[in-house]
C-alpha cells in the first residue's frame, strides 16, 4: 500500500524553480532515498513532505492525508530528523528524550516505556546517562533518531542524516534505519548526496535540477547502464574521443580530463585502447556501473555532491 503519494509537486523560490514537477509513490515499510547533488531540490522536497513548506502546486498524500489541507493531522505520524542537530548538548540523552516526550504529551510510565524501547532499538541503552556533547558524531545522530521515534511515528523523514559522519558511522546509521523499518514497521525516507547511502536503500529516486530523473532499486537503476564503464585519463581528451569513435565505434563523454566509455567486455577494451593509443593515455580503468554512472548516463554530467562537501 502506498504510504506517500506525490503527483507533479512543484516549488519555486521567487523565480528560482527548486522542484519542477516531481511524481512518485513510496510504499509502507520502504527505506527510500532521494539522491541528488547540492541544489537538486532535496531539502525543498524534504521540507514539503515534513509540512514545513506548504504545497501550492501539485498533490501530495501521506498515509492518505492530503498535504494541502490536512497537514496538522499528518504531523503526529511523522518523525523528522533535520540536517542540523536538535539535541541539547548540555543535557544527557535521557534528559533530551524526556523533554521531547513531554512536548508530545507523554508522561510517567508510558514515557519511560517508550524511552526504553527507542534506546533498545537504537542500541543506546548504555549511553542514556551521557551528556550529548560527549558522544561521537555517529552516536549523536542515533540519539536524534531515538528522539524522532519517541512518539511512534509511522513515517520517518531525514534530511541528509549522514553528512559529516565517517564511512563506518554511516554504515552503522544505515543499519539503524533498516532496523527501525523491520522492528517498528516505519517507512523511512531520507535525502542524501552520498552515493553509498543510497546503495543501502530499498529504492532510490535520483534528483537533478528539481527533476526526478529515475526511480528504482539500486540494481534496477544500474541495469540502465547495461555495460561496463571505462574511465580513461588523458591530456588530449577531444582528439582521443574522436580516435576511439573512429577505431572502436564507441561514443564517450568528457568528464573533467577523463573520457567515460560504456562498452561490453570492458577489460578487453582497456587492453585494446591502451595498445592502440599508448602515448595518449595516462590511465584506464574499468568497473561495473555504480549509481554515479547511472546519474551520469541520465544527466550527462558528473555527480558533484560529495566532492563539493569536502571542498
Ligand atoms: P538541495 O537540498 O538538493 O541542496 P535545495 O532544495 O536546498 O537543494 O535547493 C534547490 C534549489 O533552490 C537551489 O537552486 C537553491 O539555490 C534554491 N533555494 C533553496 N532554498 C532557497 C531559498 N530559501 N531562497 C531561494 N532559493 C533557494
Q: In brief, what are we looking at here?
A:
Helices cover 38% and strands 28% of the residues. It has 311 residues and is an alpha/beta fold. It folds into two domains: 2-217, 3-Layer(aba) Sandwich (Rossmann fold); 228-288, Alpha-Beta Plaits, CATH 3.30.70.
Model description:
By secondary structure, this protein is an alpha/beta fold. The chain folds into 2 domains: 2-217, P-loop containing nucleotide triphosphate hydrolases (Rossmann fold), CATH 3.40.50.300; 228-288, Alpha-Beta Plaits (2-Layer Sandwich), CATH 3.30.70. It has helices spanning 42-49, 71-75, 93-103, 108-121, 137-149, 167-184, 195-199, 218-223, 237-248, 266-276, 291-299, 305-310, and strands at 2-13, 16-27, 31-35, 57-62, 65-66, 78-81, 155-159, 187-192, 203-208, 211-216, 228-234, 252-255, 258-263, 281-287. Strands 6-7-8-3-9-10 form a 6-stranded mixed β-sheet, with helices on both faces. The protein is elongated, with a radius of gyration of 23 Å. 39% of the residues are buried. Adenosine-5'-diphosphate (ADP) binds next to strand 2 and helix 1.
Query: Total number of helical segments?
Result: 12
- Chain-averaged pLDDT: 92
Write out the distinct hetero groups bound to the structure: adenosine-5'-diphosphate
Order of helices and strands: EEEHEEHEHHHEHEHEEHEHEEHEHH
Query: Which fold does the CATH topology of the largest domain refer to?
Result: Rossmann fold
Summarize the SSE layout with pairings.
Elements: E1 2-13, E2 16-27, E3 31-35, H1 42-49, E4 57-62, E5 65-66, H2 71-75, E6 78-81, H3 93-103, H4 108-121, H5 137-149, E7 155-159, H6 167-184, E8 187-192, H7 195-199, E9 203-208, E10 211-216, H8 218-223, E11 228-234, H9 237-248, E12 252-255, E13 258-263, H10 266-276, E14 281-287, H11 291-299, H12 305-310
Parallel strand pairs: 3-8, 3-9, 6-7, 7-8
Antiparallel strand pairs: 1-2, 1-4, 4-5, 9-10, 11-13, 11-14, 12-13
